[in-house]
Amino acid sequence: MTELLDAEQVFALGPVGAVRTIRDALAAGLDPESDIPRAIAPLAHGQGLFMPSEADGWFGVKVATVAPGNAALGLDRINATYLLHDSRTLRPAAILDGVALTTLRTPAVSVAGGIDRLRELAGSAADGLRLVVFGAGPQAEWHVRTIRAHAPVADVTAVTRRGTPLAWADRHPTADDAAVADHVRAADVIVTATSARTPVLDGRLVRDAALVLAVGSHEPSVRELDGTLMARATVVVDSRASALREAGDVIQAVAEGALDPDALVTMADLLRSRAAPPGGRPTVVKTCGMGWQDLVVAVAAYRQAGASRPGARAE
User: CA–CA separation, 179 vs 51, rounded Å?
Assistant: First the structure.
């Protein structure tokens, strides 16, 4: 029987469980470079995304839509459904809330890619980390939640276009507020989770020890980070092929001569070599979102949800 996992059941895995799941999959040898590329279809009012993946006895696919105009209608910008199948029989095992899955796994991937620098920063911050977050949506909030689950946080500055008050932030300046530059200079961790099509911060302001988690762009023509920052930073990606195909932050910096594509570091490289990014320069974790990430987190959520039900599959 196909199980249905609602948002609450997906979120029950939690940020710590989701980060551990991502890292465990890479440590076990999962190869992101061999993942099935996602297909993006232009639609009349946005985009449709088809994200399949197969690994470790499972096949799954997320069907997602991105509707930029939904915000004006009071509706979610992103909607999604996830279908999980047994890889041997190809029978459907579960249908998961795809929005909750995306909301949980995206910051989990960011933190999994930057965990060494995050721990280093937390170890030297007496009162906790100083966060600056560009964006006001679910990804902005859940990046803060996921970081808080792994390190103490002193304060959070949320930079938005309208200065919207947010329960998860201590201050809420608008993007054009002169004080934003000072907050960026002082930040330990900077998150960019916006729908902006051009850079949202000045890369010269980012301090050498900072960790930057960038998730808003997944199109070649769209970027949140400028070439100045990309030239200064160690750039960590979920997949070289994916980054050079989809990540505007990477693609445009390469085109400008600010970033050598051979210098990209993958999450798998970091985890398997157990080497932290070099000090003395910022670390940028730039992810686009990949099918394998949805798959492994979906399987973990499915197993956890089924563990308490008699007869449910939990292998």
Answer: 40
Quote the distance between the C-alpha of residue 288 and its chain's center: 7
Phi, psi for residue 66 in degrees, rounded to 5 = -120, 115
Residue 92's Cβ-count burial label (10 Å; 0-12, 13-18, 19+) is middle
- Tens digit of each residue's pLDDT (9 = 90 or more) over 88-138: 999 999 999 999 999 999 999 999 999 999 999 999 988 999 999 999 999
Q: Which of 94, 127, 148, 115 is nearest to 20 (CA)?
A: 115
d(CA 116, CA 133): 20
- For the chain, give the longest Cα–Cα distance: 59
Rounded to whole angstroms, the Cα distance separating 105 from 139 reads 10
pTM of the model: 0.94
H-helix segments, the chain:
7-11, 14-27, 98-124, 138-148, 179-186, 227-232, 240-246, 248-255, 267-273, 291-307
Task: Supply the Cα-derived Rg of the chain in whole angstroms.
Answer: 19
